[in-house]
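Risk register update: the risk of archive-format incompatibility is retired. Evidence:
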Amino acid sequence: MMDVSDGVLLDASRMAAASGVAIAIETAAVPLAVPESRRADALRWGDDYQLLFTLPGDTEPPVEAWRIGTVREPGEAHLLIDGAPPASGDRLGYSH
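Archived output:
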C-alpha cells in the first residue's frame, strides 16, 4: 500500500517496479472529482492523498475501495495504461 501523492499513474508504476510486477490501470475505473475531459491530466496530478493497494483478486476489500486495475506478471513495462505501456517520455506524475 502507498499513497498516490505524486499521481496515481506514477505511483502505480513505482509500486509495480518495487514489487517486480506489472500493474494494468483501467483509466475509466478511476473515480475522479473533475470533468471527464480532464481525466488524463487528473491521473498525473499530485497532492491527491489517496491510497493505492493490491489484494488477491478474490478478496473483498475491508474498506470502501474501487478496483482500478490488476496486477500482472512482469513484462516489458511495469505500468500498462488501458492495456498499453506509456509512451516514451510520458510524464506520469509529479516530479520533485
